[in-house]
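In the laboratory, one determines a bound structure by crystallizing the protein with its ligand and collecting diffraction data. In a computational setting the workflow is compressed into a single prediction: the sequence and the ligand go in, and a structural description comes out. We illustrate the idea with nicotinamide-adenine-dinucleotide.
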Amino acid sequence: MKAPVRVAVTGAAGQIGYALLFRIASGEMLGKDQPVILQMLELPLEKAQAALKGVMMELEDCAFPLLAGMVGTSDPMVAFKDADYALLVGAMPRGPGMERKDLLLKNAEIFTVQGKALNAVASRNVKVLVVGNPANTNAYIAMKSAPDLPAKNFTAMLRLDHNRALSQLAAKAGVAVADIENLVVWGNHSPTMYPDYRFATAGGVSLKDKINDADWNANTFIPVVGKRGAAIIEARGLSSAASAANAAIDHMRDWALGTNGKWVTMGVPSDGSYGIPEGIIYGVPVTCANGEYTRVKDLPIDDFSRERMDKTLAELEEERAGVAHLL
Ligand code: NAD
Ligand code: LMR
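The predicted complex, in structure-token form:
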């Protein structure tokens, strides 16, 4: 059996936390031979801490063979101590009458504190995934608050968007999700994201050629994927939780264990390629091997794509400008 690794999860008593922790403890994220110690962070509020205690009781009651230990805390310095993986799920939700700008500022405070704590106490190789919205900019804030950790270790979740795009594409093309390769969702985890299937294939056949429907792409595929989060909130009265947790598991599993050459989408700090300014956390196609992700480079960008990629970039630059004074 391998030595246990430490997995920190924030917002552990929330909806996504509840759909996530049991799957991590059962080995679905890091493998059935990898024991884990869960380090769970919640707000110091009595209600949040009581709910966290209940989640920990349930984890205990599962008697997971791979669960080598648990810590429940309201102190980020405890939650992130020696963490090998950190899933930053907890965030301030948008309240009534709250502007996007107010949400950004509130979350900037949270992710500054958490970035500093990661910087101080986490493993120097910690892999960080930010799920809490606005995920890309929160990841940017955490990265900037942790100057002693490699910037490449900070990522934002676009995997839910990638998975949503896979399902829409599979249904339209009449192919199996598992057969689709080379899909990407560029940019921000927001309605401006650009799901791009120009390179996608199934069984070696180009899906662009097979579907051959520019109107469906512009007026159905792109908006349906981009607005799916809002459609779930409308239908459920709550934001996506099981599918979000599933995407977080996919993202971390692939990063840790590899993708066997398959493309997946991760929000990662830009290296300047594709005209994305360095440091902006932007969804790009990557492959993963040996615990590292590598960007898929030199894809041709046509005018239609450039326009969409620039639009989602402009939004990210605006978000970055909105929090610049705090960093
Ligand atoms: P939730 O409100 O059910 O749970 C969030 C939990 O985080 C709560 O228990 C809260 O007490 C806790 N929390 C808040 N601030 C915290 C802090 N500073 N430290 C520790 N814990 C804190 O929300 P949820 O449905 O689990 O969603 C969590 C976040 O994930 C939201 O921001 C949501 O918008 C986002 N989300 C992102 C994606 C994505 O694809 N990136 C998808 C779905 C949801
Ligand atoms: C989602 O994509 O389901 C969420 O990010 C929606 C939200 O605003 O919480």
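The chain has a mean pLDDT of 96. Keep in mind that any predicted model is a hypothesis to be tested, not a measurement.
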